[in-house]
Amino acid sequence: MEIPVDAERSVGRPSGYSPVTGASCHEYFLLNDQPVARRDDDLLGMADIAAGIASVIVASMKASPFVLAVDAGWGMGKSTLLRQIENCLPDKPRIVKLRFNAWTAEGENALEGLIKAVLGQLDRNVLRRSVRRLARQQRLIGIAWLFFGVAARFFGVTRMVDELWSRMAVDAKSRNELRDQIHRMVSDWISAPGNRDPDRALVVFIDDLDRCSDEVVVKVCEAVKLYLDTPGLIFVLACDQSVLARGVALSARGGTGEGRAYLEKIVQVAYRMPPPEENLLRRLIRMYALASGTADLIDHTVQDILAEGTGRNPRRIKRIINSFVLEYSLDPAWRESPLSSALLVTAILLQHLYVPFYDLLVSEEAGENPIVEFLDYVRVREKLPEPPADVQDPYWETVRRTFAARQLLAPESLPMEARKLRERLKELEGQLPASFVDLAKNNAFVVLLERIEKSEASAALRAQLVRRPLATTSMELGGLTSSELVHLKNLYAGSASPYMRTEPLQAELRHLRAMGLITAKNYISQMPAEVDLTEWVQLTDRGEEFVRNLSYSSAVR
User: Fold this and answer.
1) How far is 287 from 7, CA to CA, in rounded Å?
2) Confidence (pTM)
3) Fewer beta carbons within 10 angstroms: which end of the chain, N or C?
4) pLDDT of 168
5) Mean pLDDT, 10 residues at a time, the chain of 557 residues
6) Same domain, 430 and 456
7) CA–CA dist 549, 557 (Å, integer)
8) DSSP state of 225
9) Residue 245 domain-assigned (yes or no)
């Protein structure tokens, strides 16, 4: 899991952090995203797991080649576990360790890059002997290799590897022989003079494979299975196997199931990283808060929401904190009463973790105050089993106000039976935003809004978000529908195709506005029946950048 270096000792002006200071005395810091290699900085108990995996690798060296996968979703700490496994392995000469970042490779170059990286770790003398051996194979190389065999003694390792590759991979026949040549070179390396250790191995750590295009994934798998499947080589992959399965499905001539079967032929064993345990995750959040200067803002309630709302994902937690730090710097309004840094934390949580409710808050058409409306609905629900018998009880005033907010007739006689009130409440729920019913069951979310209400700043918060939706966002594609992506692309292209006004279209435009990707030139609710979208809304700078990045990603894939 990626955490700030020396988080526990980095509370003042931590090294490697960017301070963000507003007009007030508060100073906050952005958190970096570097893997944690040191055991002392391990906040999630990965050190023991890393040591266990490393010991298995060492004990199984004679069984090489094999591939071990560290399997986890985005942001769960695969890179950190990889780095800690590497640190737990013994050093040269018994084990040589190599890092290969697949994300930096492209297409066919991924296969070449991985093979050349492996060969580059072999001893210079092994490579020279390989050159001389190839020079003697007249049927493959001709007289040009005789000159090369003599000149090779003056080449560095990188030059020799480049030359070997260029001459072995020139045609299909040479490529068919490439595997045998690689196997012989690695075999020579294992038994090289002065290193006659039968347990000698090269351990290759491949990271970020699940971020790559399908072509790169397939080429890396091809390199590992077809060319580098030789005793002395061990591969440790950090990946989300479900993503890889989809990526190799086409090559496996089928769907995800066939993709998984394809991977099973390559990966001999996989360790699936579990979500962090609750006590360790809370410790991590506290350390993030200390390192970012937000410890006074991230209390137990916020910790609960961060832990469960993010699916216990450390990177998502970090990005939420960073969004607060940046937003606090971008808009000085949050430093003026009745707004505050604590209210901004709440707004950031709503934006990242409760998108439908955040959409309501930034929409000028969502009623007077969605926070008050939601809390009224929650209080009506709470006492449904046994509503108060006293007609003067404040509860019944809340009931009247809740129904009136949706222009529904309040119950005719109060107090009333729970059964009748429940029937009327169902009618009300049909008029409420769809998210209200589920969110009313979320205790942490309810407590969050109750704190806003208690601060008497709910109206100010709503007005601020309508005036200026938050500029920071996670920008994850998973938060946008395919229709919303089409709208963004059309706006970017300046498409004048007419749109028909529909409720789904208006909801999608409001969501895009809430994400800070578009801005409305007029009220979305006042759109005509047929409209040129470019005349009604426009992309923000963030929106243009988002579409450019989206177009680039699509081109790469």
Assistant:
1) 6
2) 0.74
3) C
4) 61
5) 36 40 66 84 87 94 93 88 93 87 73 85 77 57 46 55 62 67 84 62 90 81 88 92 76 72 90 90 94 94 90 90 94 93 95 88 86 94 84 88 85 74 86 87 92 93 92 59 78 76 79 74 80 85 71 39
6) yes
7) 12
8) I
9) no
Burial 245-272 (b: 16+ CB within 10 A, else e): bbbbbebbeeeeebbbebbeebbeeebe
Question: In terms of domains, do 415 and 518 share one?
Answer: no
Pair (328, 394) in one structural domain: yes
Nearest partner of 305 among 317, 314, 315, 294, judged by Cα: 317
| CB-CB contact of 233 with 118 (8 Å) | yes
| pLDDT score at 557 | 34
What is residue 333's DSSP assignment?
Answer: G
Residue 513 in 3-state DSSP? helix
CB count within 10 Å of CB 176 equals 9
Domain containing 496 equals 477-556
If asked whether residues 289 and 359 sit together in one domain, one would say yes
**Would you call 368 exposed, middle or buried from its count of C-beta atoms within 10 A (0-12, 13-18, 19+)?**
exposed
**CB contact at 8 A, 154 and 135:** no
Task: In whole angstroms, give the CA distance from residue 537 to residue 535.
Answer: 6
CB 508 within 8 Å of CB 487: yes
Q: Enter the tokens of residue 362.
A: 């930034």
As a whole number of angstroms, the distance between CA 49 and CA 283 comes to 18
76 in the Ramachandran plot: left (φ > 0), alpha (ψ -120 to 50) or beta?
A: alpha
The sign of the CA dihedral 298, 435, 451, 334 is positive
Asked whether residue 292 falls in the same domain as residue 380, the answer is: yes
